[in-house]
Amino acid sequence: MALKSLLSIVSLFAALHTTSAALTRRVACDDGVHTATNAACCQLFAVADDLQQNLFDGGQCGEDVHESLRLTFHDAIGISPAIAARGEFGGGGADGSIAIFEDIETNFHANLGVDEIINEQKPFVARHNLSVADFIQFAGALGVSNCPGAPQLDVFIGRQDATQPAPDMTVPEPFDSVDSILARMSDAGGFTNVEVVWLLVSHTIAAADHVDPTIPGTPFDSTPDLFDTQFFIETQLKGTLFPGNGSNQGEVMSPLAGEIRLQSDHDLARDSRTACEWQSFVNNQAKAQNRFKQAFRKMTLLGNDESQLIDCSEVIPVPPPPASDAHFPAGLTIDDVEQACAATPFPTLPTDPGPVTTVAPVYVSSHFDFSVRL
After folding, report:
1. Cβ-based burial of 18 (10 A; exposed 0-12, middle 13-18, buried ≥19)
2. Residues 261-290: pLDDT tens digits?
3. Beta-carbon contacts of residue 22 (< 8 Å; ≥ 6 apart)
4. 87-91, 107-111, 147-151, 215-219: which has the minimum mean pLDDT?
5. 228 labeled binding residue
6. Which residues of 129-167 are buried (b: 16+ CB within 10 A; e: fewer)?
7. Which residues of this UniProt protein bind Ca(2+) 1 (predicted)?
8. Cα distance between residue 186 and residue 312, in whole Å
9. Contact 153, 297 (CB under 8 A)
10. Cys staple from 148: which of 108, 159, 171, 323, with CB 3.0 to 4.6 Å?
């Protein structure tokens, strides 16, 4: 009896292994190089090669990566169940409307500047068989994979392209109140207060052109080409200067020369509803990766039924490992922190040696933000 039982268990494990192998069986792509779990994903390898070589400068975490990431947000967030409940079109979410109806949506105040990356992406869209909606989200996720320390983001295909533009006023602005931002994000996709913070991890690889047009390409932290947690440290430091021509709408004082700080980032870092979650990222690279991955996935599915889409996340390369550790910029210490989280002390961090940090402009013309004017 014991032998029969043992043989039954062995047979069960063998059957489970066979079933698992069948579920993960890969297909050969027509290019003769790649394989995929779903044949529909094969086309993305050629798209990725084209983008990396001809848009992302051979796989760099540069300007067009930042612009492409910003575009994913500005397209996806254009959805409002509250507007739809009034009997009006509330937008389709991640449906490509921002590019399909470029002549309308890029004139919305919140979207000024996104026309540049839309026009740069147009030739790629034209030569590849993807919906505009899928292309925008794929390009953003692929670009982020070039940034050291970034997570490997999820990608889906099968979205239907928009047939009408998203409504205006659906993209938050950097001068909006915290109340307004949190309400807009809740309406757009049920984003909780902490999930709003998770999305803003993206500001680690971000910069602004038009908040202060006299200093284009001014980053939000001192390491704009690294996906790290410096953004969450430096937004909590005391502001001492304006990096350009003085105070502008949507801007507050920055702690470093050459670094710009958005009013929305400053306020969210100090609001009781979001301050502790903000601070929790200060020296937690793994959490920054994980939470942004979750929030990005949720955002890219806005307006879509995930069960009707194909998961092609395997096409996105594994990003380079982190290339920095959490630290105070040279010349600054814990004494410069404006502690806002009442529940937890600010983490102990080293200070970079050397003279006071000055951040050089990186001439990055866009970012994944609450609508800096670009």
Report:
1. exposed
2. 999 999 999 999 999 999 999 999 999 999
3. none
4. 215-219
5. yes
6. ebbbbbbbbbbbbbbbbbbbbbbbbbbbbbbebbeebbb
7. 75, 93, 95, 97
8. 27
9. yes
10. 323
Q: What angle do CA 94, 95, 97 make, to 5 degrees?
A: 115
Q: Identify the pLDDT of residue 229.
A: 98
Tokens (6 digits) for 299 = 């955002």
Model confidence over 189-233: pLDDT tens digits?
Answer: 999 999 999 999 999 998 887 789 898 889 999 999 999 999 999
Q: Is 97 part of any known ligand binding site?
A: yes
pTM of structure: 0.90
Q: Confirm if 77 and 95 have CB atoms less than 8 A apart.
A: no
Q: List CB contacts of 354: < 8 A, sequence separation 6 or more.
A: 330
User: 75 labelled as ligand-binding?
Assistant: yes
Token readout for 16 is: 């489970």
Residues with catalytic roles: 74
**Cα–Cα distance for residue pair 183/191, rounded to 1 Å:** 9
Contact between 349 and 283 (Cβ < 8 Å): yes
Instruction: Name 35's bridge partners.
Output: 28
Which domains are assigned to the chain? Answer: 35-336 (1.10.520.10)
How far apart (Å, rounded) are the C-alpha atoms in residues 269 and 275?
A: 5
Measured from the Cβ of residue 46, the count of other Cβ atoms closer than 10 Å reads 16
Closest of 321, 38, 326 to residue 152, by C-alpha: 321
Q: Please give the backbone phi and psi of residue 254, each rounded to the nearest 5 degrees, phi first.
A: -105, 160
pLDDT at position 22 over 70 = no
Q: Say which amino acid occupies 337.
A: V
Question: What is the residue type of 335?
Answer: D
**How many other CB atoms sit within 10 Å of the CB of residue 286?**
9
Residues 61, 66, 69, CA angle at the centre, nearest 5°?
115
Q: How far is CA 270 from CA 13, 236, 274, 277, in A?
A: 54, 8, 7, 10
93 is in an annotated binding site: yes
Cα–Cα nearest to 329, from 200, 239, 169, 222: 222
Total length of the chain: 374
Q: What share of the chain is helix, strand, coil (3-state, %, to 5)?
A: 45, 5, 50
Cβ contact 266:340 at 8 Å: no
Rounded Cα–Cα distance for residues 134 and 159 (Å): 6
Asked if residue 204 belongs to a known ligand binding site, the reply is yes
| Cβ–Cβ under 8 Å, residues 96 and 136 | yes
